[in-house]
Specification:
Immunoglobulin-like, 2 domains, five-stranded mixed β-sheet, 6% helix, 57% strand
């Protein structure tokens, strides 16, 4: 399909409709409109309500704030009908005057049918999300804050894994990155209130979902099909986090809880508070929220490296790691809106997230296990920080800030909204310190279970004494900064009376991004003359979860001593290899779009659009070179520029077979831009070690043609059953190619081990999604307190048209696409009655390729996972509601595990243990 063809069709359709619009004189200034809000009896907004005018094939759907608009109406009286799942429909006569806007709000009450078959609990809180999902044009999954609260989820990533088609990857026991529909996390965009937020990570565009507590959002929207008015960099989909909006009445809530982790053996603390109200005759709305979490934890870890020698996989290095991590998470948000009148409104939103990770790591390393006995060694390394706050731990401080100012205006028939925003993400690692001691000691012949699940040495580590030497003593500072400024302007033009010929949307957006990474690491091993031998402490704890065969109680340099070392008195030598990763990036994206929405009769609707995104990038970095004599040099690369344009067409169709059964089909084109680290124009090589890494500033973005079809049946009580299929045709997929040999960028042709990002292949992904959620009241009303929520997704990927520079693809070999688990699923059983809610939740995902090796046997896989969680809560009170809750996560003690080539060949396995929490929530 040629790019831009769909756009031409859209433009021609729009011109035709504009002609009809002008011919019928619908630009008549006498036309008026009806605007308002849909709420329940408690004045809670009802998103996704269906608003129709009887006798006319027109209507609207309330947005996430419950607002709706019926435009371009001739003066007169109209019968407006509001319907919403679980509520009694409301019909009301509304009079429209010349050139005026009538404000008409609606309050809905629960229907008798719902009260008979469904309890007021998990699904009662969830019905708003279901109704919103029901009326969307595209494939959308909506998770309300109330529904998140029914699961034992501490952050956004944990909540997302409950959605069909979503898999998450973990860090220190918490979900960090989300994968949607069999695509890697690089292919999914994360937005806050529609604005894509920057990443605090130095290498990737991925947004860390564990930065944002689950109780800081009002709604999570997963848009699996994007329309022309949305950013196009969303091959997997767009995760839109809608922060707490201004309320319609006073809202006050508070939460306090505590917890426990097996590894740290220390208590955890959780606090939250929300306050919202309206002032000045309801013109000014305000919502303030804060969340605080303090979680001491840790992990037990082993890691292994392999190589191929004469077609045999051999173990080259083994590590045993003990982590102690204290994670402190803070989040603050504010929302304001000022309503001048029914046609003009200003909004301001801000959210700030801050996460401290204080970490100590104690690592045993068995080095050069593939070498001669006299070359092998053991290294005992302590990772820590300075003595700030007497923690003596490495601090990783990640922060994100998003500020947005916007307005909504009605200029006659023309609707307009605008926005300006500033986003910032940072990561700081001050005074990150490593102290390692080493001794020559051969272990290769003493390793058992090599190429197995848990390789280990049967030979004890030599007693730590004066025979040991300092292997490393370093102190580094790292700063990562990403700033982004965005401006947008959108217009909505109804065509014909009451938009009978549809609605035309058009607008533009400009985003300017700046990203910098600055790391300076100094080696003080030669300058150190202290007495480290008298500052040892035993580590690798008892009950080390990978097994008792590992060296429990090994002596390491004490973290308190490491934190007390005054490096200002010593002269260090900068480690240029770390400085070689520094870079400066500029990226500007200008986008415009045209979107046309129309109802094609009483049952069907169509959305067609075209988006253009023009990307300009400028990157600079450093070249690090080590010659045969191990002499180093570091030189700036200079700035390199690159530009490209993407035309992204989209067509979405929806057919309402009935009020309960909805059919959808769509075609869209989307893209994924390369990682920051991949675009740095650097060439780093070490002649002594024969290793090299090469950047690629000419990488193309990955693009995808996306086809979707789905059927959803919504039960008259709260619940649904859905079936969806999707197909993605991807081009220029980016992979990091690894090989042994030479490269044109390296002047000396030797047998180097080289890695370089390339547009490696084209690919396709086929998938099937199933979802079912319903209480058992359809069997008998007595079982309405019991219910089931389940999802399953199958994906199959295939690669083709290989464009590797060096990796040889054997005949018939199908290189697996990275980040594509074949099976993901969720199941949840719940009980909800008398204020008591209990839920048992299970999550499963199969293994998938995470990174490509020099050959297939060295490909890295993220192993399959099985998570079992349980939680319970009891709510009582009428005006003031009090909820007591308790939860336990990871009951199966599922580790994070990577393997290489063979499922039994462990690369990394990390255990976190069970986490328990309990507390109380109060809603006034």
């Amino acid at each position: 399909m040629k790019k831009g063809v769909m756009g031409i069709v859209v433009v021609l359709m729009s011109i035709h409709c504009l002609a009809v619009f002008a011919a019928e004189g619908t630009a008549n200034p006498d036309l008026g409109s009806i605007k308002g809000k849909v709420m329940d009896a408690d004045r809670q907004t009802l998103p996704g309500a269906t608003i129709t005018i009887e006798g006319m094939n027109v209507g609207a759907t309330s947005d996430v704030n419950g607002d709706y608009t019926l435009p371009n109406l001739k003066p007169g009286t109209y019968t407006v009908r509001i319907s919403y799942v679980g509520y009694t429909p409301v019909t009301k006569a509304v009079s429209v005057k010349k050139n005026g806007t009538v404000e008409q709000n609606f309050l809905l009450t629960e229907g008798a049918e719902l009260r008979e078959v469904t309890v007021v609990g998990a699904f009662s809180a969830h019905r708003r999300a279901i109704q919103q999902q029901k009326n969307e044009m595209g494939v959308v999954n909506v998770v309300s804050a109330d529904q998140v609260g029914k699961f034992p989820d501490s952050n956004i990533g944990d909540a997302l894994k409950r959605i069909n088609g979503v898999n998450v990857q973990y860090d220190q026991g918490e979900a960090r990155f989300g994968q949607v529909r069999g695509t890697s996390s690089d292919f999914t965009s994360v937005t806050v209130d529609g604005n894509r937020i920057p990443s605090a990570e130095g290498d990737t565009r991925n947004v860390q979902l564990d930065l944002i507590p689950a109780d800081m959002v009002q709604t999570i929207e997963l848009n699996k099909v994007v329309t022309a008015d949305m950013d196009g960099d969303a091959i997997g989909g767009e995760i839109n986090l809608i922060t707490k909006n201004t309320p319609n009445h006073r809202v006050i809530s508070a939460m306090a809880g505590t917890g426990y982790n097996w590894i740290s053996g220390k208590p955890q603390w959780n606090l939250g508070f929300t306050y919202g109200d309206r002032f000045f005759d309801n013109k000014l709305g305000m919502m303030l929220a804060a969340s605080y979490q303090y979680a001491p934890g840790g992990s037990d870890n082993t890691e292994f490296e392999y190589d191929v020698d004469e077609d045999k996989v051999i173990l080259t290095k083994a590590e045993v790691r003990q982590y102690y991590v204290t994670r402190q998470r803070q989040s603050y948000s504010a929302a304001f809106d000022y309503k001048f009148n029914i046609n003009n409104r200003l909004t301001f939103k801000a959210i700030y997230n801050r996460r401290h990770d204080w970490e100590n790591r104690y690592r045993v390393t068995y080095k050069k296990l593939d070498g001669k006995a006299n070359k092998q060694s053991v290294v005992l390394q302590t990772k820590g920080g300075d003595d700030d706050e007497d923690r003596n731990r490495r601090l990783e401080l990640q922060q994100t800030l998003d500020l947005s100012l916007g307005g909504e205006h009605q200029l006659g028939a023309l609707g307009m909204d605008w926005g300006a925003s500033y986003s910032r993400a940072t990561e700081d690692r001050p005074n990150e310190r490593y102290f390692g001691i080493t001794i020559k000691d051969a272990h290769s012949e003493f390793f058992e279970d090599v190429n197995g699940r848990q390789p280990y040495s049967t030979r004890p580590i030599p007693a730590v004494n004066s025979d040991w030497e300092i292997d490393e003593l370093t102190n580094s500072d790292e700063k990562i900064r990403e700033n982004e400024w965005k401006m947008k302007l959108n217009f909505r033009l109804p065509l014909g009376e009451a938009a009978r010929y549809g609605e035309l949307k058009f607008g533009g957006k400009y985003a300017a991004k700046k990203k910098e990474r600055e790391t300076h690491n100094f080696d003080y091993a030669d300058a150190y003359d202290g007495d480290w031998l008298s500052h040892l402490t035993p580590q690798i704890r008892e009950d080390f979860m990978p097994g008792s065969q590992y060296p429990v109680g090994t002596p390491f340099i004490n973290n308190t001593y490491l934190g007390s070392i005054d490096f200002g008195r010593m002269k260090g030598e900068e480690i240029l290899e770390d400085a070689a990763g520094n870079y400066n990036a500029r990226e500007n994206v200008l986008s415009t779009y045209l979107r046309y929405d129309i109802r094609l009769g009483r049952r069907s609707s169509l959305v067609a659009g075209l988006r253009m995104e023009r990307t300009n990038v400028k990157y600079s970095g450093f070249n690090w070179i080590v010659d045969e004599n191990e002499d180093e040099s570091l030189a700036a690369t200079g700035r390199q520029s690159h530009s490209y344009t993407n035309w992204l067409p989209s067509v979405l169709y929806k057919y309402d077979v009935s009020e309960q059964l909805k059919l959808r089909a769509s075609f869209t084109e989307t893209l994924a831009r390369p990682k920051y680290s991949h675009l740095i124009p650097n060439v780093n090589y070490n002649m002594a070690d024969q290793e090299a890494t090469i950047g690629n500033p000419r990488l193309k973005p990955t693009t995808s043609y996306n086809f979707d079809a789905s059927a959803e049946y919504y039960f008259k009580s709260v619940g649904l059953a859905s079936l969806g299929v999707f197909y993605k045709d991807l081009h220029d997929v980016i992979v990091e190619e690894s090989w042994k040999g030479g490269a044109a960028e390296i002047p000396v042709a030797n047998d180097y081990r080289i890695s370089k990002p390339v547009n490696g292949y084209n690919a396709s992904i086929f998938g099937v999604e199933l979802a079912y959620e319903r209480d058992f009241g359809f069997i008998t009303p007595a079982l309405s307190c019991l219910g089931f929520y389940g999802t399953y997704t199958y994906t199959h990927s295939k690669t083709r048209d290989y464009k590797f520079e060096h990796r040889v693809v054997a005949d018939g070999e199908n290189i697996k696409m990275q980040g594509t688990p074949a099976h993901t699923g969720n199941a949840s059983l719940y009980f909800d009655k008398w204020g008591l809610n209990m839920r048992l939740s299970y999550n499963v995902a199969s293994s998938f390729v995470d990174a490509m090796g020099t050959e297939a046997v060295l490909d890295r896989y993220y192993d399959s996972v099985n998570y079992l969680d349980i939680n319970a809560s009891y709510t009582f009170g009428k005006k003031t509601k009090i909820t007591i809750f308790a939860e336990a996560n990871n009951l199966l003690n599922q580790p994070l595990r990577y393997y290489q080539g063979n499922k039994d060949r462990t690369m990394q396995v990390e255990y976190y243990g069970v986490r328990c929490n309990c507390g109380v929530k109060i809603n006034l």
